[in-house]
Amino acid sequence: MSQDILDRLEATIRERRTGDPETSYVAKLTARGRKKMAQKLGEEGVEAAIAAVAEDKAALTGEAADLIFHLIVLLADAGLTLDDVRAELARREGMSGIAEKAARG
Ligand SMILES: N=c1c2ncn([C@@H]3O[C@H](COP(=O)(O)OP(=O)(O)OP(=O)(O)O)[C@@H](O)[C@H]3O)c2ncn1[C@@H]1O[C@H](COP(=O)(O)O)[C@@H](O)[C@H]1O
């Protein structure tokens, strides 16, 4: 239990991608393809936004967990890892949001 929950979840997702779609949601979603994964990510994002506007903290917590789960599934399918995202966030660290946007052009 030394790893962070996100690292453990990512490892499980990467392991289950090639599992049995009958018993694994990750394997089932992976078999359905990138478009379905993207659709699920969008749905969870909208559900999280709705929960936030409704000021429902419990719902927002659950939807945020769904959103992060589906994001990791999509990243894994795209050959990316949470470390790639961490590196991008570290690159931005200390920059103002406005300067970061300008640097991106
Ligand atoms: N964190 C999650 C997680 N969060 C959400 N979900 C699933 O995401 C789905 C989203 O629910 P929806 O109602 O939107 O979708 P649905 O109707 O079930 O399915 P769709 O047909 O719309 O895809 C549900 O089936 C949830 O169970 C998750 N499924 C798995 N995990 C983690 O992934 C691990 C591996 O899971 P398996 O691949 O199932 O073994 C688990 O041990 C968990 O740690």
UniProtKB/TrEMBL annotation:
Reaction equation(s) it catalyzes: 1-(5-phospho-beta-D-ribosyl)-ATP + H2O = 1-(5-phospho-beta-D-ribosyl)-5'-AMP + diphosphate + H(+)
Iron in keyword set: no
Tree of life domain: Bacteria
Keywords noted in UniProt: Amino-acid biosynthesis, ATP-binding, Cytoplasm, Histidine biosynthesis, Hydrolase, Nucleotide-binding
Location of this chain's protein in the cell: Cytoplasm
The protein's name in its UniProt record: Phosphoribosyl-ATP pyrophosphatase
Gene3D superfamilies, alphabetized: MazG-like
InterPro entries found in the cross-reference section: HisE (IPR008179), PRib-ATP_PPHydrolase-like (IPR021130)
Enzyme class, first EC level, given as a word: hydrolase
